[in-house]
């Protein structure tokens, strides 16, 4: 069972932001300090290697909040 | 031709040449982006790159590699009947660089020489093309030169190299097994859009059209790379292709000494390695020191990391290239008594 808390921890680890960041399901991706191409690649890899799920750059473009990305796990 | 076997072709040796000039991704950049670069280097795994001098072409590196290889093999020039060059950075748009090199290398006029336009995936394809000419009986000895001049100061990924590989006819040689694929629907994933006939160079190409997150302006005469698309392609297509080739060759992963992958970036390469369940010790990497050397990355990695091991006894290798095209190809190869001179700088 994947909890949102666990997912957010993995998500933040993957993005490897330079400064510590707090995030919740409601956090808007655009408000994150470095929601850049590197972070997006890291999240695609996270889905693939940790959750065995394939997502695309398009999926991430359509996501507004961290919770939107979490919900991609369930689809 | 997804799976195939070549017999009667011996891998005689390989030499690799990189430019002397070293770029550091951490230091050779504007001070404002240094902390961002540290994060980038951590994740893409590329710290140092090699970049040509202004006057240097890919062919200058490949020429040096070919001379060194011929010297080591003690092959006579007139014995070489084919010269295949795999590059996307020719000396000129036309004529083919291979033909210019036929003359520079003092090969005979009866040499078949031509260029193949492939990038990161090119090495297994090049071996297949030259190997097929040898297996067909028309050519006894041939050279394959692979590489690109693709490094720039701004882009932190690409690095320059030129390589030479020698193949020869030998009825006793172990079979080479291939899995070669193409998917042109992804042609935009890595593209240099301007300069061909679809979009000839025009005045407006000299004006930057987009500023990126690091305040860098992009031109349509620069290579465009769709990161997520390339990552998705590589990590979805390469592992099953490798599995398929092993199954076709009836070979277990344990029986392969080294798996050498195109050096794309750490995220892509680590994902592929983990998906295939391969131990790090069997998967040599040159990302940190040589970056992404395009089609040359398989030879660069073999030369830089395992060239002494490859000269000792029998070795079984799986080589896999993937990228621009989109194109991906793998080769299962058995080596014995092949020569691998140490890395050359020019």
Description:
Chain A is mainly α. Chain A has one domain: Non-ribosomal Peptide Synthetase Peptidyl Carrier Protein, Chain A, CATH 1.10.1200. Chain A has 4 helices and no strands. The radius of gyration of chain A is 11 Å and the shape is globular. In chain B, the strands form 5 sheets. Chain B has a 6-stranded mixed beta sheet, sandwiched between helices. Chain B has a 5-stranded mixed beta sheet with strand order 1-9-16-15-14, with helices on both faces. Chain B is globular. Chain B has a single domain, classed as Peroxisomal Thiolase, Chain A, domain 1 (3-Layer(aba) Sandwich), CATH 3.40.47. The longest helix of chain B is centred in the C-terminal third of the chain and has 22 residues. Chain B has 346 residues and is an alpha/beta fold. Chain B has 8 helices and 17 strands. Chain B starts with a strand and ends with a strand. Classes of the chains: A mainly alpha (75), B alpha/beta (346). At the A-B interface, α2 of A face α1, α5 and α6 of B.
What is the chain-wise order of helices and strands of chain B?
A: EEEHEHEHEHEEEEEEEHEHHHEEE
Structural class of chain B: alpha/beta
Principal-axes shape call of chain B: globular
Taking Cα atoms only, what radius of gyration of chain B do you get, to the nearest Å?
19 Å
Number of DSSP E strands of chain A: 0
The CATH architecture of chain B can be given as: 3-Layer(aba) Sandwich
Number of helix segments of chain A?
4
Provide the number of structural domains of chain A. Answer: 1
Radius of gyration of chain A: 11 Å
The biggest chain-chain interface is: A-B, 18 and 22 residues
Low-confidence stretches of chain B: none
Fraction of residues of chain A in helices? 40-55%
Tell me the distance between the termini of chain A.
Answer: 14 Å
**How much of the residues of chain B is beta strand, in percent?**
25-35%
Q: How is the biggest beta sheet of chain A arranged? A: none
How would you classify the quaternary structure? heterodimer
> By helix and strand content of chain A, what is the structural category?
mainly alpha
Q: Identify low-pLDDT runs of chain A.
A: none
Number of strands of chain B: 17
């Amino acid at each position: 069972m994947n909890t949102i808390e666990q997912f957010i921890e993995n998500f933040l680890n993957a993005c490897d932001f330079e400064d510590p960041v707090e995030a919740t399901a409601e956090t808007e991706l655009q408000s994150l300090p470095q929601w850049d191409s590197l972070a997006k690649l890291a999240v695609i890899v996270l889905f693939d290697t940790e959750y065995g799920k394939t997502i695309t750059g398009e999926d991430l473009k359509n996501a507004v909040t961290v919770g939107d990305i979490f919900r991609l796990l369930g689809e | 031709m997804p799976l195939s076997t070549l017999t009667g072709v011996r891998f005689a040796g390989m030499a690799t040449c990189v430019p002397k000039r070293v770029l550091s991704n951490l230091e050779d950049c504007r001070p404002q982006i240094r902390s961002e670069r540290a994060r980038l280097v951590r994740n893409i795994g590329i710290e140092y790159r090699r970049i040509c001098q202004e006057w240097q072409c890919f062919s200058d590196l490949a020429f040096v590699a070919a001379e060194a290889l011929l010297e080591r093999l003690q092959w006579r020039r007139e014995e070489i009947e084919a010269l295949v060059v795999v590059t996307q950075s020719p000396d000129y748009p036309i004529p083919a660089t291979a033909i210019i090199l036929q003359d520079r290398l003092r090969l005979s006029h009866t040499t078949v020489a031509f260029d193949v336009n492939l990038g990161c995936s090119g090495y297994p394809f090049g071996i297949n093309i030259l190997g097929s000419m040898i297996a067909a009986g028309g050519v006894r000895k041939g050279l394959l030169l692979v590489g690109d001049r693709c490094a720039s100061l701004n882009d932190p990924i690409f690095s320059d190299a030129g390589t030479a590989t020698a193949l020869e006819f030998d009825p006793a040689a172990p079979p080479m097994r291939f899995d070669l694929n193409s998917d042109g629907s992804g042609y935009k994933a890595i593209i240099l859009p301007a300069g061909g006939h679809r979009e000839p160079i025009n005045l407006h190409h000299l004006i930057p059209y987009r500023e990126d997150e690091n305040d860098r302006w992009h031109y349509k005469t620069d290579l465009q790379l769709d990161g997520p698309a390339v990552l998705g392609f590589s990590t979805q297509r390469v592992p099953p292709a490798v599995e398929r080739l092993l199954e076709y060759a009836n070979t277990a992963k344990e029986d392969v000494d080294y798996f050498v992958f195109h050096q794309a970036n750490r995220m892509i390469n680590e994902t592929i390695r983990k998906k295939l369940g391969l131990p790090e010790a069997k998967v040599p990497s040159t990302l940190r020191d040589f970056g992404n050397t395009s089609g040359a990355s398989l030879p660069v990695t073999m030369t830089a990391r395992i060239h002494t091991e490859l000269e000792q006894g029998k070795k079984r290798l799986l080589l896999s290239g993937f990228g621009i095209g989109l194109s991906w190809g793998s080769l299962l190869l058995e080596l014995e008594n092949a020569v691998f001179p140490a890395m050359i700088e020019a």
